[in-house]
Amino acid sequence: MAIYRDYLLKVERRFFIVKRKVSKPEYRFLENEFRYLQQQGRLDSKDARDLLALYEPRGSTNFVRVLLVFGAILIGVGILSFIAGNWAGMTPFFKFGLIVFSLILFYIVGHVLEDNYEKTAKSMFYIGAAVYGAGIFLIGQSFHLQHTVYTDFLLWAIGILPLAYYLRDQLVAVFASAFLIVYSFSSFASISSTPYWLLLLIPILFWMNEKRLGQKSSLFVMAVLVTTAFVVNLLESFGLDEWISLFLVFVGGVFLVLYPFKRYKTASTWVGSVLYGIAGITLTFEYAWETLNVETVAPYVFAALFIILLIYFLKNDSLPAILITCGLIYRYYADISYDFMPKSLFFIIGGLILIGFGFWFEKSRRETVKRHEE
Q1: pLDDT tens per residue across span 85-97
Q2: Closest to 122 in 3D by CA, of 79, 52, 70
């Protein structure tokens, strides 16, 4: 009976426990810690092996996958080049049939190869996704459909999101998110339209990342950027002033830094810093406040408050705050000195300033890592 129980435990460990992927430095740290606990008599070797078996190091960028992705890109470009070169001589319905046939063909080949040649199968799916996207643009031109290019990107994103879900593929999901960011700018089109589709698609992005794609930080960042782009363009479609959008992005970025998502703490800090940094530096320019007729005062008042905020983050060892501070200093250096300083001297001093910023950032990064290790 005991033998049978041990056998079931082994089977359970092998088939039902999903190993947590960690970086190689983190995996080496765990190895050293478990070895130290063994030496101290707090952990026996079997328990140490069992605990370490719950983790696995993330693989580095796979050369085969990179090769296959580039191969897929080249094949996709070749096919699309052939279709575009002979596009004028085809009837509209033949064009439509050719696009659909190519799409189905590559997806079927990818499905057939999926079990035995996973990476090659993914490259087939990538080609199919590229053909699908190009087909949207080409068919729209062929049938003279009345819609903007932003709608094409929306359709492309909607079409490849199920593929990302099926493949559990981070790369496809990132591209879909990027296409949705492009679509969000439809409010700036000549035939403007509010990107209301994002109200449905943004929750789907977050849900897919949490439940299907393994809680990837890159996808969390892209989902946050899609949300930000949606809010900015929604306000633009309502005709609100530019400074309101920038200020809301600034506040949202600061909020992400101060109250990051626990599961995405580093990603929240960096994406929040990017948002409040870009919006904050933009708000130090006079043109951002022109609609309020306070452009002679507001930029400087905001800059003073911005500097106080940066000092607070710098005291808390925020590396992104160092980069934003460097950007703010360089912005004022360029604004003040470009017009009257000789251009050669301007670039030399600018280069020296950037080198100094790089030294400051690297020194601060090393000190922060050293304090965390202690």
Answers
A1: 666 667 777 777 8
A2: 70
Helix axes 63-85, 92-113, angle to 10 degrees: 160
State the pLDDT at residue 268.
92
Q: Output the pLDDT for position 350.
A: 73
CA triple 191-196-199, angle to 5 deg: 160
- Residue 83 one-letter amino acid: I
Q: What is the DSSP letter of 370?
A: H
Q: Give residues with Cβ within 8 angstroms of 132, minimum separation 6.
A: 99, 103, 156, 159, 160
Q: Which helix (H) or strand (E) holds 177?
A: helix 170-184
User: Tens digits of per-residue pLDDT, 190-231?
Assistant: 566 778 888 899 999 999 998 888 888 889 999 999 999 999
Per-residue confidence (pLDDT) for residue 188, from 0 to 100: 64
Helices 217-237/242-258 angle, 10° precision = 150
Tell me the β-bridge partners of 56: 21
Helix axes 92-113, 118-142, angle to 10 degrees: 170
- Give the C-alpha separation, 189 to 195, whole Å: 11
How far apart are alpha carbons 301 and 292 in whole angstroms? 14
Low-confidence ranges of the chain (pLDDT < 50): 1-2, 4-5, 7-9, 11-16
Cα-flanking dihedrals φ and ψ of residue 56, to 5°? -150, 140
CA distance readout (Å), 303 to 220, 284, 336: 30, 6, 15
**Helical packing angle, 198-211 and 149-167, nearest 10°:** 20
Rg over CA atoms, the chain: 26
Single pTM value for the model: 0.72
